[in-house]
Amino acid sequence: MLPAQAAGFLETLLSRTTATVGTLAGGTTEALDPLLVGATQLTPPYLDHVVIRLQGNNLVLAAGTAAFDATFQHNGRTRRFVVVRPEPAAAGAPVLLLFHGNGGTAENQANLTEVADLVAAEGVWAVMPASVDGVWDDDPARPKGYDDVGFAAAVIAQLQANFSIDPQRVYAAGLSNGSFMTMRLACELSDRIAGFGIVAGSLTGGLESACAPVSPRPLMLVAGSRDPIVPYNGGRIGVRSVPQAFSFWLGRNGCNPAQTLSSALPDIANDGTTVALQANSSCSSGSEVRLYTVTGGGHAWPGGWQYLPVPLIGTTSQDMDATQEIWDFLRDAHL
């Protein structure tokens, strides 16, 4: 393709239009607020990756993927989520919800986790909800004035009503504030989400007191021993240590602590980090719990981008791919 043609093609991809989901999906919505969907943008066939723009934010797509964003009204607010899906899309695809950190965006979360590569390889839909003013309502003891548990449930309902996804295989994972939100969903939305990944987060005292999952689900934690934001050993008011959070979920899932197995992941990167795994599948609920301790790791998504300098957040370990590890752990779970 000639440069001028390529430029024209990219310009077309980046153009924005808006349509109702009934038009795009060939159907109609019922019993839900209307879902407005932006134009689907594709990766050009001659590129491995491309950067597109959604609502002024950069989003990296991989070959064989497409993306769009969508909005709907929830509790009097306009709420938004971003979708990265396979191209072409197959019916009955599983969904991985990814919740961004404090001050982040849906696009940032997709980029730093490099989830577009997972979408291309595994056929999963990645869905990145966007918070209100960059902060999730993650702790029932400290309400923010908006209902993010209800919003997450509404996102799942919109996906189920308007697209061909598998409602039995919806999973959730998050980073930092998004991981605290994900843990709240593990407590309050386990009837709609089949498994959970917690990265650079722990358990608040308020959630510990209120947590009553309808159905225990597989859950894994990933935490850096040198996390300056959410310290591994706790110490922040109202936040439990990561080992305490692990023990809490062993109890919730009916696991025998004596059956926890320890191993080490290969040290494949010369970055000053190593990863130890504690896993327990001896659980009366049938739902495994894991803890990946990243020794030397910071407040980061292992295998992802170093999104801020090391002095601010610590080292992003490259000894594990948290995105792939979460998917491999959750992919067979279902409601």
List keywords for this structure.
335 residues; alpha/beta; Rossmann fold; 13-stranded mixed sheet; two-stranded antiparallel sheet; 10 helices; 27% strand; globular; disordered N terminus
Walk me through what this model shows.
Keywords: Signal. The chain has 335 residues and is α/β, with parallel strands linked by helices. It has one domain: Rossmann fold (3-Layer(aba) Sandwich). It has ten helices and 15 strands. The protein has helices at residues 3-14, 21-25, 106-113, 115-122, 148-162, 177-188, 205-210, 242-252, 310-313, 322-330, and strands at 18-20, 36-38, 41-42, 49-54, 57-62, 65-74, 77-86, 93-99, 125-129, 165-175, 196-199, 219-224, 261-264, 274-280, 289-295. Strands 1, 2, 3, 6, 7, 8, 9, 10, 11, 12, 13, 14 and 15 form a 13-stranded mixed sheet that branches. A two-stranded antiparallel sheet has the order 4-5. A hairpin with an 8-residue loop joins strand 14 and strand 15. The radius of gyration is 20 Å and the shape is globular.
Q: Layout of SSEs?
A:
Elements: H1 3-14, E1 18-20, H2 21-25, E2 36-38, E3 41-42, E4 49-54, E5 57-62, E6 65-74, E7 77-86, E8 93-99, H3 106-113, H4 115-122, E9 125-129, H5 148-162, E10 165-175, H6 177-188, E11 196-199, H7 205-210, E12 219-224, H8 242-252, E13 261-264, E14 274-280, E15 289-295, H9 310-313, H10 322-330
Parallel strand pairs: 8-9, 8-10, 10-11, 11-12, 12-15
Antiparallel strand pairs: 1-2, 2-6, 3-6, 4-5, 6-7, 7-9, 13-14, 14-15
